[in-house]
Automatic annotation (TrEMBL):
It comes from the Bacteria. GTPase that plays an essential role in the late steps of ribosome biogenesis. This is GTPase Der. The lineage of its organism: Bacteria, Pseudomonadati, Pseudomonadota, Alphaproteobacteria, Acetobacterales. GTP 1 binds at residues 9-16, 56-60, 119-122. Belongs to the TRAFAC class TrmE-Era-EngA-EngB-Septin-like GTPase superfamily. EngA (Der) GTPase family. Residues 3-163 form the EngA-type G domain.
Length: 163
């Protein structure tokens, strides 16, 4: 079986952009509307010289009265259970939100290997903004820009170490 890597995080942090970049093709739906990627998308991707199953997940939403977030949460939990490695994405431009923090806590409880990605870290402010991500208790964040491709070499290296 291929190692499974799940890309997770709240809506709009850049999960699908990262998924597309790692996949090398445009598969996932990218949109400015938070939470627009409602279904899991999977593809085989070549990462650090080996084939992996890459899974783009819907953003994990906090419990909400309507049923769509509930389904998104169920989908995220299934993705997490099946994953060998989680790429947990936060948005350093928006800064940490309560949703990021509770998501991080939820991930820590499950004990799966997690790589913390500080996305949207391009430009001069990127590194400074990313410092906040240490607060999540998931180790040192890896600074990336899914949109611009920054940090992808390091990301491949870290994935190789963890798989
Ligand atoms: P998702 O909801 O987590 O899947 O997020 P998307 O991949 O759909 O991206 C949400 C928005 O963030 C889109 O407008 C993307 O173009 C933008 N975005 C994604 N990655 C980056 C990045 O590295 N830098 C910047 N500045 N914007 C990004
Ligand atoms: Mg998406």
């Amino acid at each position: 079986m291929l190692p499974r890597i799940a890309v997770m995080g709240r809506p709009n942090v850049g999960k699908s952009t990262l998924f597309n970049r790692l996949a090398g093709r445009r598969i996932a739906l990218v949109d400015d509307t938070p939470g627009v990627t409602r279904d899991r998308k999977e593809t085989v991707a070549r990462i650090a010289g080996r084939d992996v199953l890459l899974i783009d997940t819907a953003g994990l939403e906090e419990a909400a009265p309507d049923t769509i977030p509930g389904r998104m949460r169920a989908s995220s939990e299934a993705a997490l259970r099946a994953a060998d490695l989680v790429l947990f994405v936060v948005d350093v431009r928006a800064g940490l939100t309560p949703s990021d923090r509770s998501f991080a806590q939820w991930l820590r409880r499950h004990g799966k290997p997690v790589l913390l990605l500080a996305n949207k870290a391009e430009g001069r402010q990127g590194a400074a903004n990313a410092l906040e991500a240490y607060e999540l208790g998931l180790g040192a964040p890896l600074l990336v820009s899914a949109e611009h491709g920054d940090g992808m070499g390091e990301l491949h290296d870290e994935i190789r170490e963890l798989l």
